[in-house]
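Hello K.,

You asked for the raw outputs rather than the summary table, so here they are, unedited. I folded two proteins back to back in the same session to keep the settings identical. This is the first:
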Amino acid sequence: MYKENILHGTDPVLKEELIPVTIADNGSVTYADTHTKWYSYEEKKWANAVILVNEPSEEYKIGDTILEEDIESYFGNK
């Protein structure tokens, strides 16, 4: 798992149904790889996650763009 020294052990913890994501400036949501740098509090790029609707249009994997209609809830860690 990716961790930042600046957080002194308070790195984000994702529960089962939370999917780590990055959100681009254009609003595009991408399934993030938690083993690589997916957030940077030093660069003000917050850790974000989503919960999908009960029946999303597809099964997503790391690197996929997640469709807005498949997202039930957004969560940010700022």
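The second followed immediately with the same parameters:
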Amino acid sequence: MHGLHAHEHAPQTQGRTLHWAKYYDVTVQLLTLGQSKKLRAWTIDAANIRAGETILDVGCGTGELTLLAKRAAGTNGRIYGIDASPEMIEFAREKAAREKLDVEFRLEPIEHLTFADNSMDVVLSSLMMHHLPGDLKRAGLQEIYRVLKPGGRVVIVDLKRAASRVEHIMSHFMAHGGMARGLQDLVALMQALGFVSVEFTNTRVPMLGMVRGEKRA
């Protein structure tokens, strides 16, 4: 799938949408202190992806993590990436075409997923949740829970609350002016929404953490 179709339009969303796809990968590399490739590899490892699984990457951006998920799931794996930014989706589709990887990218927001109930083995999210206001985080996580199969896994990598001066400075730049809450705060919300085995861990990248959870079997 290459480029945007004529009928596709940017969806309505209250989340912050990025439009600078050409510079996104370089920006992430800088903000993760050169650890972006390792961070994505850790995310794939944490998801424990198996051959043939069906995987959704929400807020997929330029598709870097999505394409890694495809490689992990193999030829029979069905991989989808969604983003509310037309620029990101177009860039991701072009990247998949160049690498000859069968991945479907859709232009849609996390709060209105078009996938069926209980259809995903794994849902991934990387550096996207901090773009959503609180009510949208809840709505997005509810949608993730809905589309996951019983026992399905979710892995979210994002900004955690700053604990040092350096982290506060990094938070200011990475979160577009800083933020009062962080990834740690998703744990209680996910548990309230029905996720089980929810755990927060630090990553080796300052300011970034990881939350893993499962849909009740």
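The radius of gyration is 16 Å.

Happy to rerun anything if the numbers look odd on your end.

Regards,
P.
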